[in-house]
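Before surveying the methods themselves, we first show a specimen of the format, giving the amino acid sequence and backbone structure tokens:

:::
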Amino acid sequence: MYELSLDDIVGAPESGDRRIHLEPRALAAGGVVVPLTDYPGRVQVFKHVLGPREPRLTRHEGHAWIHVLAGTLRLLLDDAEHVLAPGEVAQFDAMTPHWFGPADGLSVEILHLFGPRGERPVTRIASVESAAMSPTLASDAEQA
């Protein structure tokens, strides 16, 4: 009838937890970014939905790890161009001139981990099937 929630009536405080209160932000270059963590100085995690835009190489301190969720990603690393499909991953030193966005006229959705001080993901456990698919993991498994 009055369309008020109990929280509105009793003035319950918001939790401030980003996992509950996601704050999508529009990107000036086109697209949306959703910060999933809030750990200053530690690895930061973002979900990006990027629309078509012109490439502009950038570089900065840190290490980037990108997992393609949907669409096709175009990744420029210095003079090299890479195209990644859903399920594929790239990681690189952010001091390398880089740019990423859709490979076609559609949007691309990615999960982006960024280590501002060069932190990078470390694979600790991989199944035999995963090791067989990845040359890096396969060589690690052979050494074990």
In short: The first strand starts at residue 25 and ends at 26. Helices lie at 6-10, 128-133, 135-143. The first helix runs from residue 6 to 10.
